[in-house]
Write a structure and sequence with these properties.
Blueprint lengths: L8 H6 L3 E5 L2 E6 L4 H10 L2 E4 L6 E4 L3 H6 L13 E8 L5 E11 L2 E5 L5 H7 L3 E2 L4 E7 L3 H5 L4 H4 L6 E6 L2 E6 L8 E7 H13 L3 E2 L2 H10 L34 H10 L3 E7 L11 E4 L2 E12 L4 E9 L7 E6 L2 E8 L9
Parallel strand pairs: 3-13
Antiparallel strand pairs: 1-2, 3-9, 4-7, 4-8, 5-6, 6-7, 9-12, 10-11, 11-12, 14-17, 14-19, 15-16, 15-18, 16-17, 18-19
């Protein structure tokens, strides 16, 4: 089975993208300027990612609030229509099926945004319709994101953090949320395919740098944002990832509630932990982490930090390893010393 191409595939090729397989899709890894330049452009100015590989499950109807509230971990009563919320879908054993953003558009209308490879799992758990193929999603991120996107249409710039709105753009409805996955300010714009090419070109013409999955990964790692299949998976839990705030403990039920409540009571045997080395060597997923001559886990993510100019990584580690502890990483057949550091590695670059 061949990977799926995003609607804007030819546009990315024209813009100089290097295309790689990701989550069943052929997506831009980087453009001519390279991953480090795209990363720094996001920290200092603004970039645009095509994240159309993420799913959109449209949930419309009077029963949808109760369906989402009784299935997903977070409590929709904390927000209201016109807002977005980060949440998890668990299995009955309390492990993470997916992490999700919910866009609550109106009283009975929600867009549920799963990860690329998990859309079918979400549609099997919720009574929604997969509309992923009908739209493109462009994520504009960076400290100047709103300033630059406002030159394309001032209404984009007015969407607040974790707010959701929609309006007519070139004769069709676009849906916009003040969300993202970089640690910076920004927006995610869901635009029907018929205007997506024109919109992407307008964003680039406004001075927004096109960026690929390489920079998206280093940005989210610097900001210690978990990635499904790495920090979150069917063998890890919400609490292990230090994301207990996405659990609606006051809700009577959600899928996996009994398991996660039991885990809360007994405590986690491992927790998401960050490590950093002195040199520029990139850290890599899967590297063994040793402390006091004991294997305490493996890195779930690792790379080079363009802002810190150091190798950084994180993983679900056991044992008493507080900030400042020295651990040993087994990297490509040699031992490398690393320090345990607080997360996130970078809050916001100046």
């Amino acid at each position: 089975m061949t990977d799926r191409r995003p609607f804007l595939y030819e546009t990315h090729v024209e813009l100089g993208a290097k295309i790689v397989p990701f989550g069943g899709w052929e997506m831009p890894l980087q453009y001519a300027s390279g991953t480090v330049a795209e990363h720094l452009a996001c920290r200092r100015d603004a970039v645009v990612f095509d994240v159309s590989h993420l799913g959109t499950v449209r949930c419309d109807g009077v029963e949808m609030f109760d369906a989402l509230q009784g299935t997903l971990t977070n409590d929709l009563r904390k927000i209201a229509p016109g807002k977005a919320q980060y949440t998890h879908l668990l299995n009955n054993d309390g492990f993470v099926v997916d992490d999700i953003i919910v866009w609550w558009l109106s009283e009975n209308e929600f867009d549920v945004m799963p990860n690329a490879s998990n859309t079918s799992g979400v549609t099997s758990a919720l009574p929604g319709v997969d509309v992923t193929g009908e739209r493109c999603v462009l994520a504009v991120q960076g400290p100047k994101a709103r300033e630059r996107v406002g030159a394309v249409d001032p209404r984009f710039a007015e969407v607040g953090r974790f707010c959701v709105t929609r309006f007519d753009y070139r004769g069709v409805e676009v849906r916009v949320a003040g969300t993202g996955y970089t640690g910076e300010e920004g927006l995610e714009i869901a635009a029907p395919n018929e205007v997506a090419d024109e919109l992407l070109r307008a964003l680039v013409a406004a001075g927004i740098t096109p960026a690929g999955l390489g920079a998206r990964d280093t940005l989210r790692l610097e900001s210690a944002l978990p990635l499904y299949g790495h920090e979150l998976s069917l063998s890890s839990t919400t609490l292990e990832a230090r994301l207990g705030w996405v659990i609606g403990w006051d809700k009577e039920t959600f899928r996996g509630r009994e398991a996660v409540q039991a885990e809360r009571e007994r405590g986690c045997s491992r927790l998401l932990t960050g490590v950093m080395v002195e040199g520029r060597q990139p850290l890599r997923e899967g590297a063994n982490v040793v402390y006091d001559d004991q294997l305490i886990g493996r890195l779930s993510s690792g790379n080079f930090s363009p802002v810190l100019e150091r190798g950084i990584g994180m993983g679900l580690l056991s044992g008493d390893v507080g900030d400042g502890s020295t651990v040993t990483l087994e990297l490509r057949g040699r031992d490398v010393a690393a320090k345990v550091v607080p997360l996130p590695f970078v809050r916001k670059a100046k």
